[in-house]
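To assess whether ligand presence alters the predicted conformation, the chain was also submitted together with 6-O-phosphono-beta-D-fructofuranose. Input:
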Amino acid sequence: MNAAIRGVGKTAIVEYGMEVLGFNAGYSGLINSDYIELKEAQLSGILTLGGTILGTSREKPFKIVAEDGSDNHKPEKIIETYKNLNLDCVVCIGGNGTMKTAHLLSQEGLNIIGIPKTIDNDVWGTDVTFGFDSAVQIATEAIDRLHSTANSHQRVMIIEIMGHTAGWLALYSGLAGGGDIILLPEIPYNIRSVCRNIEKRYEEKKPYSIVVVAEGIEHPKYQSAANYMANTIEAMTGIETRETVLGYVQRGGSPSPMDRILATRYGAFATQCIAEGCFGTMVAIRKNELTTVPLEEVGGKLRLVEPDLGLIQKARKMGVSFGDD
Ligand code: F6P
């Protein structure tokens, strides 16, 4: 996120001589008019830092009914901030929720440009979001490290990767880490098929397996998807099974070089879009070319893994199971 803030800000200041404000904690900062002025000094030295110097929140201003039942007037407050500060454009950086709000704000008449950021890689309209590459790297390294225990102790190792609705992260890290079974929210699995695959490997003198599960796969009420898998596989196969839930580790730390470049490209391009007055859009990458997509096309949609994706077909032919065979 910092690389994108820097990309927007430095291009705005250095190339276009614009003034830049940074709102603290996402949409909360716009609601409460809580901001700082971003000069070159604030934008220096942040490229390599994970997270965001501005902080973030899960604020959804258009959820208009507050907990006590009263209208919270948050969209009106945002419009007030926009007008009081004489803003020319708000750049909204985030995933699907952020883009949905960005679209609604643009419908209210504000000049908005979205930049797609999420480790889930599931924003509609673009081929890739930043955050994804860094998270794939961390998750892959975690899977790599599980092979030692799997092989030495001859166990089934379950690892749960983030992704409630979209399985991109589990798919990519699962394939890169040599997972034997990969379970995604988009591909309904059969627990008997999962166990059969593990037993088959056992019979083939491979008495260890790595099972990569996305956190969002359907499962009966257990602590987590990994916990359900570990308990059920051990009970059904009799093979010792252990679980790991990677959690927030996969969402933090210094971003990968590819993510820094991607966020910089997106940020600089977003500022170019401001200068050209190309509002109500999200910057996107298609076939490695920067482009824009109307926010109305993006809001409320998800880019999910298609079960017949070429990569999945190839993996199946190499013996990877997706729990449905
Ligand atoms: O949307 C990105 C994401 O990282 C999901 O993969 C994950 O399930 C979720 O955020 C966790 O959200 P929170 O930070 O609100 O717990």
